[in-house]
Amino acid sequence: CREVDWFSLASVIFLLLFAPFIVYYFIMACDQYACSLTAPVLDVATGRARLSDIWAKTPSVTKKAAQLYTLWVTFQVLLYVALPDFCHKFLPGYVGGIQEGAVTPAGVVNKYEINGLQAWLITHLLWFANSHFLSWFSPTIVFDNWIPLLWCANILGYAVSTFAMIKGYFFPTNAKDCKFTGNFFYNYMMGIEFNPRIGKWFDFKLFFNGRPGIIAWTLINLSFAAKQRELYGQVTNAMVLVNVLQAIYVLDFFWNEAWYLKTIDICHDHFGWYLGWGDCVWLPYLYTLQGLYLVYHPVQLATAHAVGVLLLGLLGYYIFRMANHQKDLFRRTDGRCLIWGRKPKVIECTYTSADGQKHRSKLLVSGFWGVARHLNYTGDLMGSLAYCLACGGGHLLPYFYLVYMAILLTHRCVRDEHRCANKYGGSWERYTAAVPHRLLPGIF
């Protein structure tokens, strides 16, 4: 049991209190104030509106939204648990089916059924079949129930996080992989169990990180585009750009889902409110703000602006993907590969694992990894900037995503580097001397 420092505790309590309010504020501002972030504050400050008036105008949960949301999550659980992956059998280069994760701190290697791409494809095929042939529901259904669905997502987010905490205390999947602190709030937020599971296959982390929220992301955007066409008779080029660039990002996630098993979320984070509520509420509601904004403000960009946004988004994606590919190739071949046509430069290092064993390792200082220590995050940020720029410069709201991603990825840099400095010691200092910048070559 370890103690929590006051700064971590303050951050945890701040997020628990304010993250749900931030989501509500953004969605309410679009619903009642045409996406203005300052108007609600000014209205309350000058007495034109009371908080109770704003709350009274907010749609509450409805039976239709509850049924929709239950159906949605149940459908995704079935696609995850009941349908083994067949995409890897006919898609060259795609890694799916049963895959192994990284070794957990307790020395366990979990197996996962990787079938997210299949779930995404089936869900979207059904969506398009409904839009063009079946007409079971209107393509604007998500937008039309957006705030009632927010309450349903919150109920699931809190229920899952609370269940995961109780499970961690009373019936953990692996007791050795639990991490307790002396603080209830920290345990609730950051999670106790490393890999909570129900049965052999239902993995909380992989399901909530990758299914209801990320599969919904592209559907939500499509629903916003349908609403824009219903309201204005056309879909603007800005809406098309947001749909296309974010769909590339989502498809990349599912194409590389097996690789995702080796990332910080799966390898280091425990499953608590941060992931449970975050994946159910924060991700689908705040990552889709650009599309929501464009329903209220249909921006039609000049051709040069639109082309610039597209190129920035594609370049950002290229850097993000190729940087990750280089690191992956380097790891898989133990450095016996070519990066940018040359033998990779490396820094040899040793580290001691928890069981006292000494290990050798190599740090890559070639290709994108010689330009900056986290250039994959830089590519990610360029993509984020492109989504925001697609919305023009009329409002602050669409730019929240960029600010959030900048904070998130900078925080990840610091966390990554703190862990690496502890692990590699002097070798890490040699590495940071060889590659002095974190995200922006020459600046930071």
From TrEMBL:
EC number of the protein: 1.3.1.21, 1.3.1.70
Keyword Transmembrane carried by entry: yes
Catalysed reaction equations from the record: 5,6beta-epoxy-5beta-cholestan-3beta-ol + H2O = 5alpha-cholestane-3beta,5,6beta-triol; 5,6alpha-epoxy-5alpha-cholestan-3beta-ol + H2O = 5alpha-cholestane-3beta,5,6beta-triol; 4,4-dimethyl-5alpha-cholesta-8,24-dien-3beta-ol + NADP(+) = 4,4-dimethyl-5alpha-cholesta-8,14,24-trien-3beta-ol + NADPH + H(+); 5alpha-cholest-8,14-dien-3beta-ol + NADPH + H(+) = 5alpha-cholest-8-en-3beta-ol + NADP(+)
Pathway participation: Steroid biosynthesis; cholesterol biosynthesis
Keywords: Cholesterol biosynthesis, Cholesterol metabolism, Endoplasmic reticulum, Lipid biosynthesis, Lipid metabolism, Membrane, NADP, Oxidoreductase, Steroid biosynthesis, Steroid metabolism, Sterol biosynthesis, Sterol metabolism, Transmembrane, Transmembrane helix
Compartments it resides in: Endoplasmic reticulum membrane
Topology in the lipid bilayer: Multi-pass membrane protein
A Gene Ontology BP annotation from the UniProt entry: brassinosteroid biosynthetic process
Matching PROSITE patterns: STEROL_REDUCT_1, STEROL_REDUCT_2
Spans through the membrane: 6-27, 146-166, 231-251, 271-289, 301-320, 384-409
Main localization (coarse): endoplasmic reticulum
A molecular function GO annotation: Delta14-sterol reductase activity
Cellular component, GO annotation: endoplasmic reticulum membrane
Assembly and interaction partners: Interacts with DHCR24; this interaction regulates DHCR7 activity. Interacts with TMEM147.
Role summary: Catalyzes the last step of the cholesterol synthesis pathway, which transforms cholesta-5,7-dien-3beta-ol (7-dehydrocholesterol,7-DHC) into cholesterol by reducing the C7-C8 double bond of its sterol core. Can also metabolize cholesta-5,7,24-trien-3beta-ol (7-dehydrodemosterol, 7-DHD) to desmosterol, which is then metabolized by the Delta(24)-sterol reductase (DHCR24) to cholesterol.
Family the UniProt entry places it in: Belongs to the ERG4/ERG24 family.
Protein name in UniProt: 7-dehydrocholesterol reductase
